[in-house]
Amino acid sequence: MHRFHLLRAFGMTLLLSLAMAALEALPTAAQMTVEHRQASLDGDATEVETVDLQTLSLPPLKASASPWIEQQNPLVFDFSTAVAQADSVTEPLAVEMNWESFRITPRVGAGYSTSSGGFPGLGYFEAFVPLSQRPGQTLSFLEGQINTGFDANLGGSLLLGYRNYDTNANRVQGGYLGFDGRGTGSNTFFGLGAGYENLGQTWDFRLNAYLPLGNSQRVSKDINVDTGVQTSTRFQGNLLLLESQRQRQRVLQTETALGGLDAEAGYRLAHWDQGDLRGFGGVYLYGSSATPTYLGWRLRLASNITPNFNAGVALQGDGLFGTRLILSLGATFPGIRSQDVVAKTDEVRARLGEPIVRQPGIAIAYQEKSEITNERFSQPLRNPETEAPYRFQHVNLGGSGGDGTFESPFGTVQTALGATQQDGNDVVYINGDQDLLIPAFTIPDRVQVLSQGPRQLLAGLPFPGFSQTTARLPFSPEPNYDSGIVVELPFSGDGNFPRTSGVILGNRTVLAGFRVENAVGDGISGNSISNVELRNNTVTNPGERGIFLDDVGGSLVLFDNAVTGARGSTPDSGQGILIRNTTTLRGNTVTIAGYRADNNRVGIDLVAVGSIEPTIEAPIQVITISPSSPFNTSIGISAGTTITNSASNNTEQGIRIQASILGSQEVAIAGATVSNNGQAGVDIISGTPGGFLLAFQEVQVRDSTIANNGGAGIRIEGNETAEQEFNIDGNRIINNSGAGIESTAGDSAIQEFVAKSEINSLGIGRNVIDGNGGPGITISTSNAEVLLVEANQNTFGTNANSPDGDTDLNIESNNSARTCTVVFGNTGAPNLVFTNNSSFVFQVSNLSNLSLNNSGAVVNLLPSEATFTNITPQTCL
């Protein structure tokens, strides 16, 4: 006999005994209904039989001491017989159930599910609230859920459901209506849900429907990606084509709320006292107006492990989300059903309070559309001065034939020059891979001749994709075009500098990147023209001069040029660089930025000489000599040649500056190295001794090293009625054979060494003057109109003897000269010698405090202090 049947028989017998005892206690006879249940194999069929207990023939009970038996009306009952009868029936007899034990109570729960199609991994909190019920028969309820995904966005649902238990079919069936909401971080979607369920002891069936509300497709991200402009340059024919390509990509990310259906059927695979395991198979359908409709399949296992804990695993696949494995785990308190063991006959009825099985809300499909647009532009590089395209005449040295195009270049420079049109747009571009000597050539007006040796940069009109910048046009020493572009020529900077035996310049011409070797006369020359530009050229061993610009007006730009070995055949030649102006019409502005003028007769010679016959000519020069400028349009010169910004090792002067016969010069020298020259390092001459004409000079020498020269470091001479103004600041004037600074003024010249606050000059100031073979500074005048000297904050070392002994600063006024000096703040215990042999005034600022004001200077006032006039303040008026 099975223990299960035995226990049921015992329980039934005990209940019948208690019932009969109760009847005996009643004053009148009573009837009770006793259920006799004949269960089919699946437990779904039930028969009910009513019997009268007064007519029921029961075996007599034996006396028992059991407390369950009423002693005042004992029944005689044979337990063994009852067990035998119980074992003979299929199902035990049971009294009518107390359905209050099936009352559904409110509960809460929590759980987690891994990501599934259209849903991220979700953690959720839920609540189940009965609204009305007949325990074990019907139930209406609310079920709510709040979930949050790994994306930290909230969603949830609220369901209104109804279920009833069908006694005849032994099944629970019901339905629900629901409202869903889901946030994605970018959008919030809402939808309606509805479903039907039919639950039995072994088989289940469910159908759910989902309907989004409102606009089901919305934009989550609208991203515009600009890859930027890719630029390139290339030669085609005689043009330099500028090309730019810009790619733009628009990435549109959308989120679509999907509607659809799912249906499944399930079978109970196993069960135990407080739980079971069920397997399900089904299909689902998802789609929207913005997406195709996808049919998918789903297999899952779901287990109510206990009334409090459940778990599941599912495998599903479709054409939209692919194949996914989904795991879930949940907990519910106080439990989905009673903790008591439920009789087999009541297992279906007990499912009235199970949660609704559906998808957790609104499925979202994420879509991304990408749209790419390309913009391409192509245009020749155009000349800002003419707004027409540049024309390039290409030359491959040593080649033959050709038409000057990039595809078919000329073989000689002369052929290319002959093809130019002189309208300002032609560029002869030379590939010097073949080291062949180019015969001397003349550049036609308005033509540029460039080699591939240095980097070659050209300014152009604006073009899409090329950065607009302040550009430098030819013949300008600095940027002067505010809205242009700068393009580096393809193949430039290859280091191959072509060789030639001489170049003659025309009007508005450019020569850049050449080696001029062993020219018979001048290496590079231009006469009576305007506007030239020389860049990155070297001139070696010319027969006469290295670079000779004679009466060249306008703007002269010399960037990073080197000249060596110019000795000359006449006293008027042998200059490394000679710039000479003799006519009013050829006034010019000269910029020498980056240079090497070494081992010539004269390094750099600047001459402005006018004429009074037959017409008055007053040439004007404005010249700047400085190190390489950041505004140079090309960098570097030929291999083996370095730019030292020097005028050194010349047999005569390093830099010579001459003005006479109405000539006028403004010269600024900065950052120069002038050393080891045979005569004066810097020689400045104005006028002709004994003459009567005017000449004008304004010269600055600043922040330079002037050393080891055979004469004075700086020598100055003023004659006739010359007017000279000097600012000499921040230099190292050392170890020269003559004086550090030597100046003489004769005839009716005017010399001024005066402070200028606008250029931060102290006149002669802040120089280091040491080790010279003559006085540190010696300035003398004979019949000069005016001599003004301000010498401040210089540092004197040991300078050699003069007739008056060691002298650091010597100022001597003779004859009819008028002199004024301000000497202040000099250091090194200088020996100051002032001599007044003039019949006019010699003024000295703070005469009595010269020693105190110049760091313990030794002061000699000759012939006596009485011949000098003290003035205040410290300035010459």
How many E strands? 61
Q: What fraction of the residues are assigned to beta strands by DSSP? A: over 45%
Unreliable spans: 1-97
Backbone shape:
elongated
Rg, Cα atoms, Å? 56 Å
Please give a handful of descriptors for the protein shown:
single chain, 877 residues, mainly beta, 21-stranded parallel beta sheet, 14-stranded parallel beta sheet, 4 helices, 49% strand
Q: Can you characterise this structure?
A:
The protein has 877 residues and is mainly beta. 5% of the residues lie in helices and 49% in strands. The strands form seven sheets. The protein has a 21-stranded parallel sheet that branches. A 14-stranded parallel sheet has the order 18-24-27-30-32-34-36-39-42-45-51-56-58-60. The longest helix has 23 residues, at 3-25. It is elongated and about 145 Å long. Residues 1-97 have low confidence and may be disordered.
Concise structural overview:
With 877 residues, this protein is mostly beta strands. The protein is 5% helix and 49% strand.
Write the layout of secondary structure elements.
Elements: H1 3-25, H2 79-88, E1 107-113, E2 122-134, E3 138-149, E4 154-166, E5 171-183, E6 188-199, E7 203-213, E8 217-236, E9 239-272, E10 275-288, E11 291-304, E12 309-318, E13 322-333, E14 363-380, E15 391-396, H3 413-418, E16 426-431, E17 437-438, E18 441-442, E19 447-451, E20 457-460, E21 469-471, E22 481-488, E23 499-500, E24 503-504, E25 509-512, E26 515-517, E27 524-527, E28 530-535, E29 538-540, E30 547-550, E31 553-564, E32 575-581, E33 588-598, E34 602-609, E35 620-626, E36 655-660, E37 664-670, E38 673-675, E39 682-686, E40 696-702, E41 705-707, E42 714-718, E43 723-729, E44 732-734, E45 741-745, E46 750-753, E47 755-756, E48 761-762, E49 764-765, E50 768-770, E51 777-782, E52 786-792, E53 795-796, E54 801-802, E55 805-806, E56 809-815, E57 819-824, E58 831-838, E59 842-845, H4 850-853, E60 858-862, E61 869-871
Parallel strand pairs: 15-16, 16-19, 17-23, 18-24, 19-25, 23-26, 24-27, 25-28, 26-29, 27-30, 28-31, 29-31, 30-32, 31-33, 32-34, 33-35, 34-36, 35-37, 36-39, 37-40, 38-41, 39-42, 40-43, 41-44, 42-45, 43-46, 43-49, 44-50, 45-51, 46-52, 49-52, 50-53, 51-56, 52-57, 56-58, 57-59, 58-60, 59-61
Antiparallel strand pairs: 1-2, 1-13, 2-3, 3-4, 4-5, 5-6, 6-7, 7-9, 8-9, 9-10, 9-14, 10-11, 11-12, 12-13, 20-22, 21-22, 47-48, 54-55
Helix pairs in contact: 1-2
